[in-house]
Write the structure tokens for this entry.
Amino acid sequence: MLTPEEVTKVLKTVIDPELGYNIVDLGLIYNVEIIPKTQDNPPHIVITMTLTTPGCPLAPYFSQTIRQTVASAAAIDPDQVEINLTFEPPWSPEALTEELRLEMGL
């Protein structure tokens, strides 16, 4: 099983098709949690994230792409990747990494 840091690194390969930047540097990922295997349940990965706007039409794209990308890297079933979508706190340009803010001229 991957560590939260390794999952975050994998998430950097998921690019927002509208903005052209990865979802980690855009500040869309709030938390990555690894839930170990129990007697009754397989291990799974819980990703808490947001979108730039509540009505973002890319929500299904991100959900599918994140599940497939992380599951492939972790050698688990995509059903073992859970995505919690939240808008608290709401996304703002301050969530961008400093490097990305500089690149975008913000």
In short: The helical segments are 4-11, 59-74, 98-104.
